[in-house]
Amino acid sequence: MWLTACANLPYYAQAVDGHFEVLRRSQPISAIITNPDADEKLKHSLTKVIQMREFASRTLKLPDNLSYTSYADLERPFVVWNVFASPELSLKLKEWCFVQAGCVNYRGFFSQAKAEEYAQELRNEGYDVYVGGVRAYSTLGWFSDPVLNTFISYSEMNLARLIFHELAHQVVYVPGDSIFNESFATAVEHEGVRRWFESTGTVLEQAVLNARQERETVFTDLVLKHRQRLQALFNSTISDTDKRVEKARIFADLQADFRRLKADKAEFGSYDSWFAQPLNNALLSTVSIYTQLLPSFQAILKYHDQDMEKFFDAVTRISKLPKNERNLALQEAVAGNQPWVMVER
Question: Is 212 exposed, middle or buried (CB count within 10 Å of its CB: 0-12, 13-18, 19+)?
């Protein structure tokens, strides 16, 4: 462990420097709103954030702390760039292990150049690699996370989604289990935005939200269908040469299926930028991280009659189980069984 920690020292240094630069640029939202010289559009958005932040604590029972009560302009489009990698003939994402966070399926950099440099090293080793810009991250309650210029211009829907999602990471976080953590936060995000628009939105906004979530489900199902084909291919006994040929065919099929979907439903053009990227194993593997266990968490929330405190309590108990028991409990939940509710560990 200590050898790994020492090897990661330069990486930790850039992470610490990057985060403290974010904090250095932060200033209280209240000071910006009362500043007569501040941009009016920015003040309007930050006022909306204050309302969402209060709603998150009062209605969703998310942590009531100083996160998202300050604002920082980083003067760049993303706060960090995450590097994902998987072997050429495998869908298993490479893992990196760190203090506190445990093992995760990405390596984040506060510099795009450093991220691209590291990504190229992985490509040279034969990995499929994807570099994605990230507009926000959670420090899991260790620091007061600020609102950033990287996402303050989001629509009201996306701004609420992000804040609820990132605050959820402060409620439950299992080191080394990205799928559990992200699926849980996505469940909180979905429920939170639904309630937000129920209390403040119009009928039209509700309809837009429902349509957005339906599109996300269709997109995810489309990608996972072809991901399953890739998994079957990589598990087969044919030669690596034949696997590479078939892999290219599967990616071409995915592109063709998307074009047909968009021709039938023009609103799916919102995914054009995703499909404009070079498709590879790493990119496809990132899709399921946020949604793979979403039905399980939604089933637990439904069982508890949408009571957020009871939901958080149940998820906290499940999170303390060994991974195999944790996954079994989630399978029971989505299957409609209730023995998992009695978990006391």
Answer: middle
Q: Give the tokens for residue 189.
A: 């995000």
**257-308: per-residue pLDDT in tens?**
999 999 999 999 999 999 999 999 999 988 878 888 999 999 999 999 999 9
According to the 3-state scheme, what is the secondary structure of 153-205? CCCHHHHHHHHHHHHHCCCCCCCCCHHHHHHHHHHHHHHHHHHHHHHHCCHHH
Q: Which DSSP category does 20 fall into?
A: H
Contact 261, 218 (CB under 8 A): yes
- Reduced DSSP (H G I as helix, E B as strand, rest coil) percent helix, strand, coil of the chain, to 5: 60, 10, 30
232, 237, 240, 241: CA torsion to nearest 10: -100
What pTM, to 2 d.p., does this model score? Answer: 0.89
As a whole number of angstroms, the distance between CA 195 and CA 121 comes to: 45
pLDDT 10s digits, 149-199: 999 999 999 999 999 999 999 999 999 898 999 999 999 999 999 999 989
- Neighbour tally for 71: CB within 10 Å: 24
β-bridge pairing 27-28 and 80-87: unpaired
Query: What kind and span of H or E run contains 134?
Result: strand 127-134
Q: Identify the DSSP state of 340.
A: G
Contacts 24+ apart (CB under 8 A), 272-275: none
In sequence order, the 6+-apart residues with CB closer than 8 A to the CB of 150 are 74, 76, 77, 78, 79, 135, 136
Amino acid at 179: I
CB 311 within 8 A of CB 300: yes
Cβ contact 111:14 at 8 Å: yes
CA-wise closest residue to 287 among 186, 201, 167, 176: 186
Among 141, 190, 202, smallest CA distance to 164 is for 190
Q: Count how many Cα atoms sit within 13 Å of the Cα of residue 322 in the half-sphere of its side chain.
A: 2
Return d(Cα 160, Cα 59) in angstroms, integer. Answer: 13
